[in-house]
Amino acid sequence: MCCLIAGVLPAHAAALQNLGFDSAITNTITVDQGVSYGPVSDLLPGWQLFQGSNQVSSIGYDLNPIGLGVASIYDASSQGFPAPVSGKYSLGLYPGYNLLFDYQPFSLVQTGDIGANIQSVRFINYGSPFELRVNGTPISLTYEYQPGNTDPDTRLAVVTGDLSAFAGQTVQLKFTTLDMAGSVVNGLDDLQFNAQVAPEPHATVVLLLGMGLLAFESRRRRIGEKLKH
């Protein structure tokens, strides 16, 4: 069992790496009964992955999930889950629940340097959204959903957030999955840092995220009521 937040960040860290998930080393992939998987250290170099407080050691490759609590990278020719891919690979996380029906989020973590001129972060999301914390501080994110795809698991959002307070620092990035009704995957791709200032969150985007969180709480209450009877 591992702690997600280090008590002290290193004085000098390397630049953040593998931000588009395109540096995967795939020659260590193992195929077992038609399922391909490999170590996180190879398929997600530079990153650590946790489910709850437990560190994940292996993930799938082009996984067509038949259950929750799994993770996978996808290439553009994937015949399983039709994940949107920018570049070589994207990352799909499928959070699950424990025996008490408590949500078990995935967290993706990396520590590294942010340039002195950086003002904002940008990434692509599909499916359910993410929370982003930098050195433990929540970052307000703007989700701009793209037209043309209404599938809750594959629709794309361009997401931006303000990082100006952390320019020139060594930081820990921590992406944590959020639950949203109608979607089983939290997808992430094409993470970039920009010198441009992040736009202000739109009211409609904030409303959509709020509705998703309310739906999750409503589902948890219904499950709790069923367990009492």
If you had to describe this structure to a student in words, what would you say it looks like?
The chain has two helices and 17 strands. By secondary structure, the chain is mostly beta strands. Strands 1-2-5-6-7-17-11-15-14 form a nine-stranded mixed sheet. A hairpin with a 5-residue loop joins strand 8 (96-97) and strand 9. It is globular, with a radius of gyration of 18 Å. Mean pLDDT is 84; it is low at 1-11 and 203-229.
CATH class value: Mainly Beta
Query: N- to C-terminal separation?
Result: 34 Å
Q: Average pLDDT, to the nearest integer?
A: 84
Strand order of the largest sheet: 1-2-5-6-7-17-11-15-14
Instruction: Assign a percent range to the helix content.
Output: 10-25%
Order of helices and strands: EEHEEEEEEEEEEEEEEEH
Q: List low-pLDDT spans.
A: 1-11, 203-229
